């Protein structure tokens, strides 16, 4: 470990202990060696004993920087793991991170634009509209069109800070793996690698701008999702300019209630949006924490979502999509054998897996879940448990599926917060069944045929020539096959004839010997010998030659 890595490691431990994070750990997660190590660092005392556990955790994440803030954001959506106090504290990490100096923001924006801000924008506001883990957002008006826009600029040195923390995490994770050995299912190095690829995607605002434009285009005519227009001509790696939206943060339930939002429709549209992005477009927003989702103020009875921050997007292969949809349907039909088969067919687990044992494990996991009423079942959780079960059968980690499963958990959490009676399955099932029938029904056949049209229209003019060539080839093949057959028949006939002559010659020779011993008259045995020898010579000559 380098000196700077060591320093950062010490700083991280110091901040965590000074905010008393060790106190919040349940005692079963504090083995004797942990407690011994803690006692060795006696000078690092909890400096904020008067604050609550959630607040201490949030402040520690804020002090440690972007990587930890993101971690806190992710945790904030896991209301299944956290109590309300913690979840609300951590939700503040979604967009209430202390801002950085506006002079630095201006300098960074102008460095990217290559011209002064005032030459392209009017009314640039030095006080940021919002400040988040990776970037800060300032309002302005686009000079050329007079449209209100926001300028999203990366925090100074955010890349270095993230890389340094990730390096440290990678080193700790690989040491942990060495200590625990290969047999353990907990693979910290894999988790960090997964997290790394996710967070690094957020550091390129040009890429985010491209993603946002693609998502916007996918939902141009949608009444469920709106994505703000991105001014691509002013987007760079560290700066993004887009239309300013004016929605209500999805977490602000009171304001949504006050305007009379149709929560049932909103929650159902959330689920529909998730499945449309995954199955129709194969391009889904994978950072759906509430700080990135707003609700329209117009027509509260017919509300739509406004999606921001397209830094992390997910895609699945066609095969994964198909198996995932089937998996959900099989789960709902309690067809555990099918689930086990699907994991094998898709290649998620090896084909040598014991299907029966796997099916039993899936059943043991799913049966207790079905004891609950349907509207209490979390499908993100079911998927997570299925992956855990499959890990016991050496499932290869599929980062794209993990991303999807996390997104599903977010969506479900959000949907249930908006409308607690949301029956996710009733909303999703018709969508999945329809999608599956489109994949395998006659419509799928015609769609595929239609998709292959350009290929066939290119090949069609060559078709008569190809048919003629093939017929000619076929006739030639038929001719040579007939020749071969005739040759084989002739060969067999010759063989039979030769065998017949040789056997008769052997019989004559044996008879000749018998008569010779009887010595009735020498003429008879000699005639047998003579005839036998002649037949043997003829028979031998008749034998077909080996080729
Ligand atoms: N187009 C916009 N119009 C209005 N407000 C916006 C817009 N884009 C971003 N914001 C505000 O800025 C906040 C932070 O933006 P964004 O989530 O894109 O930043 P980030 O640093 O990538 O955040 P995160 O911590 O989620 O990674 C949003 O929560 C929202 O309040």
Automatic annotation (TrEMBL):
EC number(s) per entry: 2.7.-.-
Catalytic residues as annotated in Swiss-Prot or TrEMBL: 287
Which SUPFAM superfamilies does the record cross-reference, listed alphabetically? Protein kinase-like (PK-like) (SSF56112)
**Pathway entry:** Cofactor biosynthesis; ubiquinone biosynthesis [regulation]
Kindly list the biological process annotations in GO that this record carries. regulation of ubiquinone biosynthetic process; ubiquinone biosynthetic process
The record, for CDD domains, names:
UbiB
EC primary class: transferase
| Ranges for domain ABC1 atypical kinase-like | 93-342
Q: Which residues take part in binding ATP?
A: 129-137, 152
What is the top-level taxon of the source organism? Answer: Bacteria
Regions crossing the membrane: 523-540
Mind telling me which GO cellular component terms the entry cites? plasma membrane
Give the UniProt keywords, A-Z: ATP-binding, Cell inner membrane, Cell membrane, Kinase, Membrane, Nucleotide-binding, Transferase, Transmembrane, Transmembrane helix, Ubiquinone, Ubiquinone biosynthesis
Gene Ontology MF terms in the entry: ATP binding; protein kinase activity
* Localization of this protein: Cell membrane
Membrane-protein topology: Single-pass membrane protein
As for what it does, the entry says: Is probably a protein kinase regulator of UbiI activity which is involved in aerobic coenzyme Q (ubiquinone) biosynthesis.
Q: Which HAMAP family does this one have?
A: UbiB (MF_00414)
Q: Which family does it belong to?
A: Belongs to the ABC1 family. UbiB subfamily. Belongs to the protein kinase superfamily. ADCK protein kinase family.
Q: Which PANTHER family match?
A: CHAPERONE-ACTIVITY OF BC1 COMPLEX CABC1 -RELATED, PROTEIN ACTIVITY OF BC1 COMPLEX KINASE 7, CHLOROPLASTIC
- By what name is this protein known? Probable protein kinase UbiB
């Amino acid at each position: 470990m380098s000196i700077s890595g060591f320093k950062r490691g010490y700083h991280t431990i110091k901040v965590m202990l000074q905010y008393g994070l060790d106190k919040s750990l349940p005692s079963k997660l504090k083995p004797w060696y942990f407690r011994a190590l803690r006692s060795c660092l006696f000078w690092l005392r909890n400096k904020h004993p008067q604050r609550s556990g959630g607040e201490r955790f949030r402040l520690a994440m804020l002090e440690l920087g972007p990587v930890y803030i993101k971690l806190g954001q992710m945790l904030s959506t896991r209301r299944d793991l956290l109590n309300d106090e913690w979840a609300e504290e951590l939700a503040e990490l979604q967009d209430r991170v202390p801002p950085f100096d506006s002079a630095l923001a201006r300098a960074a924006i102008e460095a990217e634009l290559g011209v002064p801000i005032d030459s392209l924008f009017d009314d640039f506001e030095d006080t940021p509209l919002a400040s988040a883990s990776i970037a800060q957002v300032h309002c302005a008006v686009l000079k050329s069109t007079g449209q209100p826009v926001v300028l999203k600029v990366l925090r100074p040195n955010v890349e270095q800070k993230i890389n340094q923390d990730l390096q440290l995490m990678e080193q700790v994770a690989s040491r942990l793996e060495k200590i625990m050995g290969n047999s353990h299912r907990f693979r910290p190095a894999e988790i960090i690698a997964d997290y790394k690829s996710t967070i690094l995607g957020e550091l390129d605002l040009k890429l985010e701008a491209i993603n946002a434009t693609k998502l916007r285009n996918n939902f141009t005519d949608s009444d469920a999702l709106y994505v703000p227009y991105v001014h691509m001509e002013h987007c760079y790696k560290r700066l993004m300019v887009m239309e300013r939206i004016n929605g209500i943060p999805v977490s602000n339930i009171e304001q949504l209630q006050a305007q009379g939002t149709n929560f049932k429709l909103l929650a159902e549209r959330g689920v529909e949006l998730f499945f449309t992005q995954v199955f129709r477009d194969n391009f889904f927003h994978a950072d759906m924490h509430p700080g990135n989702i707003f609700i329209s103020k117009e027509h509260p009875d017919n509300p739509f979502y406004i999606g921001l921050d397209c830094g992390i997007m997910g895609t699945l292969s066609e095969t994964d999509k198909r198996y995932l949809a089937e998996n959900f349907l099989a789960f709902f039909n309690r067809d555990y054998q099918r689930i086990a088969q699907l994991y094998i067919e898709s290649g998620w687990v090896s084909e040598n897996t014991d299907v029966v044992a796997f099916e039993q494990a899936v059943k043991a996991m799913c049966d207790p879940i079905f004891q609950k009423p349907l509207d209490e079942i979390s499908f993100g959780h079911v998927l997570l448990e299925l992956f855990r079960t499959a890990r016991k059968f050496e499932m290869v980690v599929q980062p794209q599926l993990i991303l999807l499963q996390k997104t599903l958990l977010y969506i479900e959490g959000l949907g249930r917060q908006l409308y607690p009676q949301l029956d996710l399955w009733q909303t999703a099932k018709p969508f999945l069944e329809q999608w599956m029938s489109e994949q395998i029904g006659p419509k799928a056949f015609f769609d595929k045929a239609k998709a292959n049209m350009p290929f066939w229209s290119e090949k069609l003019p060559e078709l008569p020539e190809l048919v003629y060539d093939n017929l000619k080839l076929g006739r030639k093949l038929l001719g040579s096959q007939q020749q071969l057959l005739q040759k084989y028949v002739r060969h067999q006939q010759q063989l039979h004839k030769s065998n017949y002559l040789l056997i008769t010659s052997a019989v004559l020779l044996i008879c000749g010997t018998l008569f010779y011993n009887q010595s009735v008259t020498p003429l008879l045995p000699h005639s047998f010998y003579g005839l036998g020898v002649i037949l043997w010579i003829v028979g031998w000559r008749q034998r077909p030659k080996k080729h």
